[in-house]
Design brief:
Helices cover 39% and strands 21% of the residues. It contains nine helices and 14 strands. α3 (72-81) packs across α4 (97-121) and α6 (188-199) packs parallel to α8 (245-257). A hairpin with a 7-residue loop joins β6 (137-141) and β7. The protein has a single domain, classed as Carbamate kinase (3-Layer(aba) Sandwich), CATH 3.40.1160.10. By secondary structure, it is α/β, with parallel strands linked by helices.
């Protein structure tokens, strides 16, 4: 794999990096890429800086980037500060009225505007949205046992199109509206998949805190670099896809079946993993197509 961190290499090698990336830049230029940046992948300011640099670079070479984000750890931290215990049901945060207010404050406020500021600090043009803005995300309650946790049932991507056409990077917080002015906490992976499908994106990238799909979860050397969606049922039956990987894979499958060309699960803890996945032969994660 060629090195994308060009700070410590000579000018000739830097030119070689750009030349080898050129076919991929041509492939993605003018296309839309939806990137889901999860709370567990926001592990340090250094990594955040690398992610923002990647996104701004892609935008500058003509890629339409939409950044969809979660913020689970920050929500947990705020709830702890106000003396409210976080409770999870089947991996989803139980969300009552008080919790959904905290979710909205953290996602649509602190995290969203923080990411917008970072992108602009790196020379990008960015505007933050939540799913409530312009009716972007509409959801219905999954079940009463989860409280105000919603499943996205309708997406209005017109606000995103308008921002992309004006040269901005939309940053979307996954809070959704519902009937009777309800506000729902929605899973960022599933929201990103639905947004990517409605945009007919070339690629959906889920940034997480694992290398990708592994045959052996204890051995990063068993990474499966590419999977056809038709192989997913067998991999589930074999136990290769299990636990927390199941919903991520299911999101990718849904996106591909709805028209997204490919979906990728990559390790957001690796600096410049977005560029390494998109602009190199080898990539760094698992691609579903």
């Amino acid at each position: 794999m060629f090195e994308l961190d060009v700070v410590h290499i000579n000018s000739q090698d830097k030119a070689e990096v750009l030349i080898r990336a050129l076919p991929y830049i041509r492939q993605y230029s003018g296309k839309t890429v939806v990137i889901k940046y999860g709370g567990n992948a926001m592990v340090s300011e250094e990594i955040k800086d690398a992610v923002m640099t990647d996104i701004v670079l892609l935008s500058l070479v003509g890629v339409n980037v939409v950044l969809v984000h979660g913020g689970g750890p920050e929500i947990t931290e705020l709830l702890k500060k106000i003396g409210k215990e976080s409770r999870f049901v089947n991996g989803l945060r139980y969300t009552d009225a008080e919790t959904v207010e905290a979710v909205q404050m953290v996602l649509a406020g602190k995290v969203n505007k923080g990411l917008v500021g970072l992108l602009q600090g790196h020379g990008g043009k960015s505007i933050g949205l939540s799913g409530l803005d312009g009716g972007l995300l509409h959801a219905r309650q999954i079940n009463e046992n989860l409280g105000l946790v919603g499943e996205v049932d309708r997406v209005n991507v017109r606000p995103i199109f308008d921002l992309l056409n004006a040269g901005y990077i939309p940053v979307v917080a996954t809070v959704a509206g519902g009937d009777d002015n309800a506000v729902y906490n929605v899973n960022a992976d599933t929201a990103a998949a639905r947004i990517a499908a409605e945009l007919q994106a070339a690629t959906l990238i889920l940034m997480t805190d694992v290398r990708g799909l592994l045959r052996d979860v204890n051995d990063d050397g068993t990474l499966i670099p590419a999977v056809n969606v038709s192989e997913i049922p067998l991999l589930k039956k074999q136990g290769v896809i299990k636990g927390g990987m199941i919903p991520k894979i299911d999101c990718c499958v849904e996106a591909v079946r709805r028209g997204v060309s490919r979906a990728q699960i990559i390790d957001g803890r690796i600096p410049h993993s977005i560029l390494m996945e998109m602009l190199t032969d080898e990539g760094v994660g698992t691609m579903l197509s």
